[in-house]
Write a structure and sequence with these properties.
Blueprint: H1 8-19, E1 24-25, H2 35-43, H3 56-70, E2 78-83, E3 88-95, E4 98-108, E5 114-125, E6 128-129, E7 136-143, E8 148-152, E9 164-167, E10 175-180, E11 186-193, E12 198-199
Antiparallel strand pairs: 1-8, 2-3, 3-4, 4-5, 5-6, 5-7, 7-8, 9-10, 10-11, 11-12
Helix pairs in contact: 2-3
């Protein structure tokens, strides 16, 4: 189970930014990368960095992808969904009252020169968000010409933490934002994609 540490998400993001100053190279076969190419490039971006082994979140995704690629089954309580057609990947783990959900997807941008890749992790306890060490969303912009992607600011909205979670789209283009009140009642809002950014 992932350790819960305050401010650790900031450290993880800073480490990634340092590792990706010159961009993360995305290697692929064919004419353009697919979701596996984006995810693999992201989770292996700083394998040589001394902090790489301590990033349990990305290590879990990397290990699941290695099993998926070799045709091995996932451990008990773990499932992986790969939808190449829709550019979506989801890894889920369940243990007792805990549930972790990693989602990754990408969008074609309106300028036709870039793609937007998102990597999201949210942890839940007893069905409600429970902020974990690596929870949050990272956005990277992929350049079709250089074949590299770089971390960017969240496009068009601020990520909130607490009794809130974000679901990336498997179909469609919008992000679903779910909020829980004190009584456990959920309300949903939609962050709509316009080709370059999101807005309510």
């Amino acid at each position: 189970m992932m350790k819960r540490l305050s401010l650790a998400i900031i450290f993880a993001c800073c480490t990634l930014v340092m590792a990706a100053q010159d961009g993360i190279e995305v290697r692929f076969l064919g004419t353009s990368p697919d979701i596996i190419d984006f995810v693999w490039s992201f989770v292996t971006a700083y394998d040589d960095d001394e902090d790489a082994e301590s990033d349990e979140s990305r290590h879990a995704v990397k290990a699941a992808l290695e099993r998926y690629r070799s045709g091995e089954s996932q451990p008990e309580g773990w499932t992986i969904t790969v939808d190449r057609k829709n550019g979506y990947l989801c890894l889920e783990s369940k243990y007792e009252n805990y549930y972790n959900k990693w989602e990754m997807c990408y969008w074609n941008m309106a300028d036709k020169k870039h793609k937007l890749f998102a990597y999201s992790l949210w942890c839940f306890e007893n069905g409600k968000p429970s902020l974990g060490q690596y929870d949050g969303i990272n956005f990277l912009r992929y350049n079709n010409s250089t074949k590299k992607m770089s971390i960017i600011d969240t496009p068009g909205f601020e990520v909130e933490y607490g009794d809130i979670s974000y679901d990336l789209p498997r179909t469609g283009k919008d992000i679903t934002v779910t909020r829980w009140d004190k009584n456990g009642k959920k309300t949903e809002n939609t962050l709509k994609w316009n080709g370059s950014r999101f807005s309510y």
